[in-house]
Amino acid sequence: MSNMEKIVKLQPATSLLVPPGVVHQIRNTGDSRLYLVTTMMPDSGFGLLIRSGIRDQLDEE
Questions:
Q1: Contact between 23 and 17 (Cβ < 8 Å)
Q2: How far apart are CA 11 and CA 29, in angstroms?
Q3: Residue 36: CB partners within 8 Å, gap ≥ 6?
Q4: Most CB atoms closer than 10 Å: which of 11, 17, 39, 49?
Q5: What are phi and psi of 49, to 5 degrees?
């Protein structure tokens, strides 16, 4: 990890603000499914990327 990287451990029902242009990743380190609600302003084309991606079936959960 470089001195510019930071690890933030999130708990259920918490939020994380990532400024535009900041490279980041979310990792599920738990044993259960991770659900995220993401809001992007401005979306910088991310919505188009998601809509044009590979469709997948949702499971019953």
A1: no
A2: 11
A3: 26
A4: 49
A5: -60, -45
